[in-house]
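tool_call: predict_structure(chain=1)
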Amino acid sequence: MGIPEDIALFEQHLNDLVIKYEQYFLGLEKREPLKLLDEVEKSARKYTNVNIVNTMLKFKYNSVVARFNSYKQYWTRINRLIEDGKYSRERFKMDMHRMKGHAKPPERESPVNPDIEKIYQQYMEARKACRLPVDNITPEMIATTLERQKPAIVNKYRCDKIEFKVVIEEGIPKIKARPKNQ
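tool_result:
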């Protein structure tokens, strides 16, 4: 095989090795992929003392070797954490279970004003559209915030009734107040 084929094979083996190590760190593989690691290390050393004339191939080879060395440092660090007992292989699975637990919001016991509920739904949709977290926002929080600000708004506009509207300004959803037409 020539240099281009060797570099392509080296890159393919490196990609396979990355996948195997990720599976090992997640606990799907029981043993570290040492055979494949040895193959990739041999491929990395194969052209170290050879002068590659084609600059494109030389660049590709050097970048794949650099990528391999970077991954190798990462794998060594994670293996050290596993040996010290500071790395949880189940962390990924725990995160998945935690997200499944948050998938369905708990049912609310206290009924909320239908207008507040409508504002809440619009606000949640706006936050989702802006890719902002929605986990810790409840209708009760919005109701208490609006009730707390209502006297100042009534004073400012000198009116009896106020209507709230959800708007997005500069990528941030906000609840705006304005006097309600009679």
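agent: The chain has a mean pLDDT of 85. Proceeding to next step.
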